[in-house]
Amino acid sequence: MKRRPFFILLGVLVMVSVTMAACAPAAPALPYEEIAYDEPLVVAADSCDYGGKIKEIRALDELTVQFTMCKPDPAFLAKAAFTPFSIQPREYIEYTGGTGEILEHPIGTGPFMLDEWARGDSVIFKRFDDYWGDKPPFETLVFRWATEGAARLLELQSGTVDQITNLSPDDFATVQGDTDLTFLAVANPNILYLAMTNTFTPFDDVNVRKAIAMGIDRQRIVEHFYPVGSVVPDYFTPCSIPNGCVGEPWYEFDAEAARALLADAGYPDGFETSIFYRDVFRGYLPEPGLVAVEFQTQLRDNLGIEAQVVVMESGEFIDESTQGNLDGFYLLGWGADYPHITNFLDFHFSAANPQYGDVHPEIYEVLEEASQIGDAAQAESLYIQANNAIRDLVPMVPIAHGSSASAALATVENAHFRPFGAPLFGRTDPGKDTFVFMQNAEPISLYCADETDGESLAPCQQVIEPLLGYAIDSGDIEPRLATSCTPNADSTVWTCSLREGVKFHDGSALDANDVVACWAAGIDASNPYHVGNTGAFEYFSYLWDGLMNLEE
Amino acid sequence: MTVAQPEVAQLPDTSLVSKPSSLWATTLRRFLKRRSALVGMGILSTLILLAIFAPVIAPYDPTQVLIGIEDVRKRTAPCIHLLGCPLDQPQHLMGIDGNVRDQLSRVIYGTRYSLFIGFTTVGFAIIVGIILGAVAGYLGGWVDNVIMRVMDVLLAFPSLLLAIAIVAVLGPGLENALLAIGIVSIPAYARVMRSSVLSVKVTEYIEASKALGAGPLRILIGSVLPNAITPLIVQGTLGIATAILDAAALSFLGLGAQPPTPEWGTMLGSERNQVFTAPHLVFFPGLAIMITVLAFNLLGDGLRDALDPRLSSGGTGQA
Q1: B278 touches chain A (CB under 8 A)
Q2: Is residue A459 in some structural domain?
């Protein structure tokens, strides 16, 4: 009896605790508040003199965004569907200041939301139950990585991962002959080229460059160092891209004529130089070291050129080659970001690209004119001129359109690898609660507005979404956060209608200001949130011909 | 009357006493008793012959690409007709590498590079080490302190790490790798030489040489060096094995010999990802490195046992 008050007190405490727990919010409160759509946001350049393609991005109403262009861009839809232009909440960008937390923890509208990034080990995602589209049939998505192709295949064969990327060419037959695995051909258009910088001797002589174009047996390279399905290119752009393969085809291999041309240029006994490359697996260059040595052999045997093979760190190689600082040959390639010829030709041969040394107006002037024509047939004559000029001036030698492949366990339904972009894992079904994907390397950051490497873009695509997207099996454009984007008569104004009822992973609702805020952080150099990981926002810069409001 | 002849003291029968043999003859006799050392010597002799006669022995030029010459593809497995490989296929005892070259020819030519690396780096290190050790030991004082502290600093780093750092500064390439390996090998020889100088320079015959007016250089070369040569030989033989391993490691990392040089470490490095799909491309260069290093180690151990005066009366011949 003496203990009755104690038990009453205990009972009351338990009741109070239970009541408080029941009334408490399910998740910790966000450190920022949702901003209701009121004042429409706008980001604009003072004028179009900055050289870029976008003049202004404006929210017209809660679910409408308008893009005003400086000049027509027929590839607008294809570009806008690219991952770096994905949307995150305006409030989150302002809260993070466009850097810090947002680099490691993106908040999007995608079918998965980030759960944990265990540095050096894995990135774990959980299903987003309020996703606007079809919800993934499994709960947990895990990204892991291994640099060696053999290691990735071993993991797949042992069943510790469900899908891997970048199958080594030597493993194609193994996977195709294994009934427990599914071979997934990747139809991403790409090109490997042997480039030269014309500000260095002897590459300043077009006859030397032509001799090299004729003196390389490209068929031998593709036949022996590329997987089945790879082709020797007649043009820089793959033929699956409209207007890619028009004009005069590339030079035939003719070592004798090449030597004669080299002798006429004053190098009858060849010369000494280097071949620079990075030891990174890409679909267009699956075995960089072997191909570099093969070039070394062919240059020596066919042209008498003694070249030293130099492997460089990947980042340094990209910086030095794209700035035109390498004084020898270099092996570089390109995988299509979006299905349009401008993604190949305009990027590589525009007036702003110094990677081959002095730029050629014979090429870039035609390309500038062609890039403003929406009708492919109408633009064909200009692309014929451009391709012929590339052939005549030989800034580089196109070597191969490589085929590549991925692989998955046979138990995974709808396993795929898209021609453009990473797989959409929300549409696959592993038949269990967890799906594990293994890629080449760890992401650099997950703020993909300011990333360019595929290992960062792939996990981003599970979490964040752009206004539009690419189909699973082609380059066709599909609606994502926008239900439609329509142009005016001369394609200088694009109006995008946003999907209703879309929620971000933080529970806030998508509106037009979120779209403007995200684009502004990327394309407006004067925006306070234009910080990111490197601050370069390279895809904003190069796909839209420059950042607006950039200080001189 | 007979006169007793005084007894002539009986001299021992000289035929039962062996003539005193020279140091080198004794050493050679002891060395020949060690079976493992003979095995090492035999392997090394074979490797030297392979290196010298590589152009005659190797079936192909090591950099020759066989595309268009034979019907072979990259990374083809070894084809040995005696073991059942079809006769219509070209015979390649160690298979074809990633750039469609004969692997056997490359391994044979690789012997040249490995032996060259071993002898030159250790030769360089011994010469520099002898000079530094002799100067430090003979002069003593602050000179000794400075030289040996620098040697201590070099010894404080793992040799391969230090070699990587040196190559990173000088740039990749075989010559720079040789220099790096040579530099990191110097302290071991300098210490051996210095300790020999310290132990010999206080002996009476050195004092006598000094009294007779011999200069430091003459004393070092004429009296000290002969006494230090034995441990240097042993150290050098074992050091060659280490140098070959270090060079292979540097080349494996892409810092040593550059393509298309048929150096074993480079061959291993370029095909390291094929360990499951084309194991012959890593097995044979790896085996070659292992055999060469083993040969030098066996030889070094044998020389150490043969040259060690402490074993002069009780050596059993077992290494």
Answers
A1: yes
A2: no
Q: Mutate which of B60, B64, B65 to disrupt the A interface (most A C-beta within 10 Å)?
A: B65
Co-location of A197 and A302 in the same domain: yes
Task: Give me the sheet containing A64-69, strands edge to edge.
Answer: A42-44, A54-61, A64-69, A493-498, A482-487
Number of CB atoms found within 10 A of residue A12's CB: 10
Q: A293 and B99: CB-CB below 8 Å? A: yes
Direct distance between the N- and C-terminal alpha carbons of chain A, in angstroms, rounded to an integer: 86
Is B65 within 8 Å of A168 when comparing Cβ atoms?
no
- A230 and A378 together in one domain: yes
**By the CB < 8 Å criterion, does A309 face chain B?**
yes
Domain that holds residue B230: 88-309
Q: Is the distance from CB of A355 to CB of A323 less than 8 angstroms?
A: yes
Report CB contact under 8 Å: A308, B258: yes
The CA distances from residue B63 to A355, A454, B262, in Å, are: 32, 36, 8
- To the nearest whole angstrom, how far is the Cα of B279 from the nearest Cα of chain A? 12
Distance CA A434, CA A436 (A): 7
- Residue A66, φ and ψ in degrees, nearest 5: -125, 130
Domain count, chain B: 1
Residue A410, domain CATH: 3.40.190.10
Q: How far is A225 from chain B (nearest CA, A)?
A: 8
- Cβ neighbours for A349, distance < 8 A, ≥ 6 positions apart: A359, A360, A363, A364, A367, A386, A390, A395
- Encoded tokens for A234: 């007649």
B189 assigned to some structural domain: yes
Say if B69 is an interface residue toward chain A (CB within 8 Å). Answer: no
User: pLDDT (tens digit, 9 = 90+) per residue, B131-182?
Assistant: 999 999 988 999 999 999 999 999 998 888 989 999 989 988 999 999 999 9
B23-47 pLDDT, tens per residue?
A: 778 878 888 888 889 999 999 999 9
What are the start-end ranges of the E strands in A425-487? 434-439, 468-470, 477-479, 482-487
Cross-chain Cβ contact A224/B67 below 8 Å: yes
- For chain A, the domain total comes to 3
Domain membership of residue A182 (yes or no) is yes
Task: Look up the CATH number of the domain holding residue B169.
Answer: 1.10.3720.10
A262 and A356 inside one domain: yes
Distance between CA atoms of A69 and A52, rounded to whole angstroms? 9
Q: Does B99 touch chain A (CB under 8 A)?
A: yes
Higher pLDDT, residue B111 or A404: B111
CB B33 within 8 A of CB B315: yes
Min Cα separation B98/chain A (Å): 7
Last residue of a domain, one of A415, A450, A485: A450
Picking from A150, A168, A293, the nearest residue to B259 by CB comes out as A293
Return the residue in B64, B277, B281, B282 with the most chain A beta carbons within 10 A, the one to mutate for interface testing.
B277
Measuring CA to CA, which residue among B40, B95, B43, B107 is closest to residue B70?
A: B95
Q: Tell me the average pLDDT across B82-100.
A: 94
Give A-chain residues touching B260 at CB under 8 angstroms: 293, 296-297
Per-residue pLDDT band at B14 (split at 50, 70, 90): low
Task: Kindly state the DSSP code that residue A64 receives in the 8-state scheme.
Answer: E
* Cα angle A220-A225-A229, degrees, rounded to a multiple of 5: 90
Comparing CA positions, the residue from A170, A167, A161, A166 lying closest to residue A143 is A161
Q: Which of A148, A224, A290 sits opposite B73 (nearest CB)?
A: A224
The residue segments making up the domain with residue A143 are: 112-187+404-450
Largest CA distance in chain B: 112
Q: What is the Cα–Cα distance from A75 to A73, expressed in whole angstroms?
A: 5
- A297 touching chain B per CB within 8 A: yes
- Cβ-defined contact of B99 to A290 (cutoff 8 Å): yes
* A150:B274 CB<8 A: yes
